[in-house]
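Dear colleague,

Following up on yesterday's call, I've attached the two folding results inline so they're easy to grep. Please treat them as preliminary; we haven't cross-checked anything against experimental data yet. The first protein's sequence and structure tokens come first.
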Amino acid sequence: MARITVEDCLSVVDNRFELVLMATKRARQLAKGADPTIDA
């Protein structure tokens, strides 16, 4: 499995704070039963 770094993500998202907000939102979605978008 490939490692994704913060620097890789910052090429898509403008700043680290926004990245944290996006990760938090997705974690909450997964905790509530949302379907994963990748096979883990």
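Below is the second protein, in the same order (sequence, then structure):
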Amino acid sequence: MNLTQARFVALWSCSGGTHAEDVYGMLERCYTEPARHYHTLAHVRRCLRHLDLARGSIPEPDAVELALWFHDVIFVPGAKNNEQSSADWFRRRAGGRIRACDHICAMILATTHLGIAAELDTRFVCDIDLAVLGASLRRFREDGRLLRAERPDLDDRAYDLHERTILRGLLVRPRIYLTDFFYTRCETRARRNLSWRLGLPIPE
């Protein structure tokens, strides 16, 4: 059992879940689907590293961690209901045994990033999901390449316009990061990265 699997099994079991190794196996199969390039276990592991840095500031860190494990478990490129499908998938595996199941589902749904979450745990989930925006420019560019690879259905111009719409929506917010922890760590660099990306020419 590798460290990633061991971490999940321990969390799932202590949260009331059963058949932890089987659930991890299903998670792993989902996150290694061939259509995925960015939304993989590598993204989950990066989220967990950010979680570990912020753990002391999070009211319910185990619930937040479960939301992060499952927030991208269902990923259909271009689909508008991936978050809802991921929450439903989690609820079925939880089987009424996981504590705070409704709360965890709500946090998964919040990773659409369409609204401003009021609840602190949910804000941490959203900020951790977006922490990539505050990475180094090199890492930001590589993640952009991986995200682009997940949309082969769009030509370069269509994808560029799609991405610009999302990034502009983040940039016009008063704050990209809703928690003070991630605002302090990531806000300035994230705004710099987004401005750089939006300054690139639109493909012909």
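For the second protein, one point worth flagging: The chain has a mean pLDDT of 97.

Best wishes,
A.L.
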